[in-house]
Amino acid sequence: MSDHDPFAPPPPGGQPGARPGGYPSPGPYGPPPDHYPPPGHYGGPGYGYDPAAPFGYDRFGRIYSEKSKVVAALFQLLLGVFGAGRWYTGHIGMAIAQLLTLGGCGLWAFIDGILFLVKDDRTDAAGRVLRS
Question: How far apart are CA 21 and CA 87, in angstroms?
């Protein structure tokens, strides 16, 4: 057991004990490197608006689409026999299939519309996640 009192004030000059070997003593800090933005500068790389993702990113880092999953679901539920939700999201092949089968006699269109509402991984034709 150590005889050091943990509640005693530190000695003048800092904490007691020597620095472990291999660690340099901290020196005065110089100016920041040139690649950091100046203080108060926001709008540079890594700050704010990203032109590659104008609607932002989801929690997994995937880019949001300009299309809405609520609008796609409404199109699909109301006009699903024509494949309207799939036309809206840009999935032309699936939209044509829904048009030719009348939305799978309405069943495919109804299930697809519900999935647009409850799933968070529905994408547009470019592979971007639909916004809420």
Answer: 67
